[in-house]
C-alpha cells in the first residue's frame, strides 16, 4: 500500500512540476514574487522538520540575540527566499542572452573574466545562497558555460525537467554517478565546471556551531588539474 501511494505521489509531483513549467513563465515578475512569498510562508508551517532545523541553526548561531518570534520570522523568510529561487528557475525560459541583464545584476564579474577564457580551465564553487539558479544562468549568458554535477531527486521523474531548465542557458548537467571523473576530464580539456555546496543539520543530532571549511574535492581538482578556484 505504501509503495502504491509513493508511486501516486511521485506522479502527482511530476504533473505539478510540468504544469508549473508551463504556467509560471506566463506570469509577470510581480506575480511570481507574490506566489513565492505565499508558498514559502505556507511551506515553513507545513514542513515542520526543516523549519525546526532552521530555528535550531539560528539559536546556535545567534544565541539569545533574537527572540523566538524573531527566529520564526527569519526562518519563514528563508523559506520564502528559497521559494523565490525555485520560481525564478521555473520562469527562466524567458531569460535570454539579450535580456538577462534587465533582471540580474552582477558585481565584480570582471575579476573572474580576467582569469578565464578558452585557453584556461576554471572551477566555480558557491554555496546555496541567494539566487544560485540565476547565478548559473548569468554565467552561461556571459559565455562562462560549464559542466555542473547535480544531485538526483528521490523522485527520478523530476530530474529531466530540472535538467532541461538548468541547461537552457548553455550549461551541461551530469549525474553524480561517475560525475567526479567526468568533471576532472572536463578541467583537463580546459573546460569549466561549477559546483554548489550546502550544509545540512538535523534536529535529532546535537546542535553544534559549524565552521567554514575547505572542500577537499575542490582542493584535489585544483591541485591535479592546475585549475584556479573561483
How would you describe this protein?
The protein has 230 residues and is an alpha/beta fold. The chain has two domains: 1-94, no CATH class; 98-230, 3-Layer(aba) Sandwich (Cobalt-precorrin-4 Transmethylase, domain 1), CATH 3.40.1010. Helix content is 54%, strand content 9%. The protein has a four-stranded parallel sheet with strand order 1-4-2-3, sandwiched between helices. Helix 7 links the parallel strand 2 and strand 3 (172-175). The relative contact order is 0.13.
Report the principal-axis shape: globular
Order of helices and strands: HHHHHEHEHEHEH
CATH C-level class of the largest domain: Alpha Beta
Number of helices: 9
Question: How many strand elements?
Answer: 4
CA gyration radius, whole angstroms: 19 Å
Q: Percent of residues in beta strands? A: 5-15%
- Unreliable segments of 5+ consecutive residues: 195-225
CATH structural architecture of the largest domain: 3-Layer(aba) Sandwich
| Overall average pLDDT | 79
Sum this structure up briefly:
This protein has helices at residues 2-23, 29-46, 48-62, 68-91, 109-114, 132-141, 159-167, 179-188, 216-225; strands at 122-127, 147-150, 172-175, 192-197. With 230 residues, the protein is of the alpha/beta class.
Amino acid at each position: 500500500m505504501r509503495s502504491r501511494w509513493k508511486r501516486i505521489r511521485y506522479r502527482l509531483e511530476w504533473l505539478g512540476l510540468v504544469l508549473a513549467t508551463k504556467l509560471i513563465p506566463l506570469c509577470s515578475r510581480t506575480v511570481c514574487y507574490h506566489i513565492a512569498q505565499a508558498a514559502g510562508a505556507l511551506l515553513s508551517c507545513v514542513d515542520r522538520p526543516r523549519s525546526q532545523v532552521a530555528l535550531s541553526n539560528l539559536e546556535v548561531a545567534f544565541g539569545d540575540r533574537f527572540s523566538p518570534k524573531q527566529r520564526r520570522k527569519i526562518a519563514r523568510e528563508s523559506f520564502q527566499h528559497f521559494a523565490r529561487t525555485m520560481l525564478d528557475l521555473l520562469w527562466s525560459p524567458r531569460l535570454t542572452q539579450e535580456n538577462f541583464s534587465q533582471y540580474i545584476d552582477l558585481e565584480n564579474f570582471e575579476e573572474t573574466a580576467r582569469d578565464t577564457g578558452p585557453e584556461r580551465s576554471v572551477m566555480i564553487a558557491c554555496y546555496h545562497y541567494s539566487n544560485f539558479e540565476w547565478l548559473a544562468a548569468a554565467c552561461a549568458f556571459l559565455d562562462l558555460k560549464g559542466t555542473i554535477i547535480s544531485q538526483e531527486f528521490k523522485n527520478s521523474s523530476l530530474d529531466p525537467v530540472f535538467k532541461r531548465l538548468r541547461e537552457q542557458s548553455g550549461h551541461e548537467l551530469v549525474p553524480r554517478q561517475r560525475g567526479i571523473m567526468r568533471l576532472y576530464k572536463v578541467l583537463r580539456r580546459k573546460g569549466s565546471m561549477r559546483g554548489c555546496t550546502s550544509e545540512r543539520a538535523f534536529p535529532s543530532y546535537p546542535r553544534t556551531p559549524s565552521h567554514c571549511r575547505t572542500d577537499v574535492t575542490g582542493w584535489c581538482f585544483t591541485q591535479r588539474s592546475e585549475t584556479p578556484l573561483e
